[in-house]
Amino acid sequence: MEHLINRRVRDIQVSGIRKFANRVAQYPDAISLTIGQPDFQTPEHVKDAGKRAIDENKTTYTPNAGLPALREAASQFLARKYGLNYDPEQEILVTNGASEAIDITLRTILEEGCEVILPGPVYPGYEPILRLCGAVPVHVDTTNNGFRMTAELIRPHLTEKTRCIILPYPANPTGCTLSKEELEELAELLEGREIFILSDEIYSELVYDGSHHSIATHSGVRHQTIVINGLSKSHSMTGWRIGFTFAPAYLTQQMVKVHQYNVSCASSISQYAAIEALTRGIDDAEAMKREYRKRRDYAYERLKGMGFDIIQPQGAFYLFPSIQRFHLSSFDFATKLLEQERVAVVPGDAFSRYGEGYIRISYACSLETLERAMERIERFVQKLDGA
Ligand SMILES: Cc1ncc(COP(=O)(O)O)c(C=O)c1O
User: Fold this and answer.
1) Considering only CA atoms, which of 81, 36, 46, 22 is closest in space to residue 246?
2) pTM, entire model
3) 232 lines ligand 1 (CB under 6 A)
4) Is the minimum distance from the CB of 200 to ligand 1 under 6 angstroms?
5) Residue of the nearest CA to atom 13 in ligand 1?
6) What pLDDT is recorded for position 126?
7) Nearest alpha-carbon partner for 129 in 45, 12, 239, 34
8) How far does the centroid of ligand 1 lie from the alpha carbon of residue 282, in Å?
9) In this predicted model, what pLDDT tens digit does every residue of 291-302 receive, in sequence order?
10) Which residue of 68, 84, 147, 186 has the smallest Cβ count within 10 Å?
């Protein structure tokens, strides 16, 4: 009966991160730098709000779009932090993490044969969904442009079939961001074209140099932009599954239908905790950001000192050094590093073929762990250089 299963589902590849994680599981003593989630606890006051919601029996369905108070809080959070203005009643949806936000956005706007432009390397969460919609991914090679997908790089890929551009900055796996000027140029390029912009801003609270800018602040493209954000990274709430879409009413009205028949609503308990996070916890990310920044500076300097070709990331919690000088595939490099020095990193090809020749190092771990890992990586690299 397997042949009867939807071909597009059968064609989805197991994520490269997952594949490598299975290998890492065979080395329980390894130091893992593969983590894609914060190593901090959810703030106590947010956890308390979740516990209170349970004790007060706030455990029923909520409106499909999410609790009005949470949409209001999300609207104010975005206005205060990024100068974005979205109507909580008409333009905001509460989703099950940014993942579901990506899913309902793509399923609302894509059809058979549409093209979707996205950077390469890129977070692996988009491609399977757009393929399920029958759309075609068009990767833009950003490897010679500091991993930044700028207007200049996008222009030659625009065709009559282009339906959407995915703009995930600050980026996973590279930690790169786009400057205000680069976003302005992109907005100018896309304004007036019948192309949607999915702006995944899940790492917006983790920008170390300067501040985060959203393309949706450019009035010329606001009506074609869907901003995605959530609490997974900003408030260390990956397991609570709270994300958001911010999009014009004509889009939100359609997206809510996909969301409703998919999940009804996000968890009520998590939504009450999220209200706390976005009101009394509006600056909770600051302390975590200071820590991440220290780790970024440390790991970046260490890797540079070892001779890695590496771009200093400005956001998120990843480094993406090139390993091309070792003439090993990223999978072989990561496997040898794991086997010989018990350090786990993610092979770059998990992030599309444009990630081949790189590895992703996450610094969502203590500085002490990072120090131990860097010692081991240094030893490994010295051995490779001497070989
Ligand atoms: C760029 C990007 N978007 C979305 C997500 C998914 O976030 P969530 O856990 O809120 O579904 C991740 C998770 O790692 C991510 O890196």
Assistant:
1) 81
2) 0.97
3) yes
4) yes
5) 36
6) 98
7) 12
8) 20
9) 999 999 999 999
10) 68
